[in-house]
Amino acid sequence: xxxxxxxxxxxxxxxxxxxxxxxxxxxxxxxxxxxxxxxxxxxxxxxxxxxxxxxxxxxxxxxxxxxxxxxxxxxxxxxxxxxxxxxxxxxxxxxxxxxxxxxxxxxxxxxxxxxxxxxxxxxxxxxxxxxxxxxxxxxxxxxxxxxxxxxxxxxxxxxxxxxxxxxxxxxxxxxxxxxxxxxxxxxxxxxxxxxxxxxxxxxxxxxxxxxxxxxxxxxxxxxxxxxxxxxxxxxxxxxxxxxxxxxxxxxxxxxxxxxxxxxxxxxxxxxxxxxxxxxxxxxxxxxxxxxxxxxxxxxxxxxxxxxxxxxxxxxxxxxxxxxxxxxxxxxxxxxxxxxxxxxxxxxxxxxxxxxxxxxxxxxxxxxxxxxxxxxxxxxxxxxxxxxx
Length: 388
Fold this sequence. Notes:
It contains 11 helices and 12 strands. Helix 6 (about 200-225) crosses helix 11 (about 355-365) and helix 8 packs across helix 9 (about 280-300). The chain folds into 3 domains: about 1-130, 2-Layer Sandwich (Beta-Lactamase); about 135-225; about 235-385, Heat Shock Protein 90 (2-Layer Sandwich). By secondary structure, it is α+β, with helices and mostly antiparallel strands.
């Protein structure tokens, strides 16, 4: 009795295990099938039947098709080779195949296959677990195509960048060289080096000088904008002590020439004991040039321009350029340092001056600040370390 009772309990446990296993297989999100060595499908779950286009497992089994029939003819040899390799190695993982549905449509499935052997070690069945990865493969293909498109766009951008570098180099050489030469001869002529000039001729040559100075500033800004990355600017810096008072006076004199306005109200203030600053002199001149040109352009015909420099208690020199013009609206002020940003009322200019100013000062480790009140003008300030 005891033996019979134990046998019954073992049978119950076996039956329960089979039911649980069947439940797991049936509720699996993957297709699960048992296939004979000859390729005949012995059993499968509902998911597998529906995956290949049948409403029920019974319909699938009733059609009597061999498992290899669900592969396209050109993939059947590879499927057979995979199963032979499986017999030799014991398992195949993540094998991808195209599968044909009952209606003739196809999809891509990822299959894991295991081998079942009998008690004598002979191969008996294959257990295949498959998952439809058509959407994943489509997404991968789209991603690959987008990556290829981005790579091509990147290649074209690099080519454009090289073309831009070549253009800037041409601008630098082909424009700067004649500009410097032309300005030099004009300066000599206006100084009387080639003899006395009639008043009308001197006036016209003065206009030419102003226009060439403006063109020179524009060329410098374009080239400066091209080379405005911090790494490039920092590597190009030639930091030397720059005498503050002399720099301010020369910048004011240059502005009077560029503006061509004899009535320009330009005030300069530099204490006699103002120290020199550590800076790249040519770049600092460009900063003051751009700020003063903006002040004249934004200030209007009757504005007062102020250029000042003073020592701070922190061992720096604070530079300031201000005008009493219309000011900058709040919604535009934060964008004024962006390339090509400009006020509608500002007249000429390419909108690169302030962008170049910020890049140069950042390369010096300095910040630039704008204070502006509508109707009362604008003040731009920055600080540089005092020399020694």
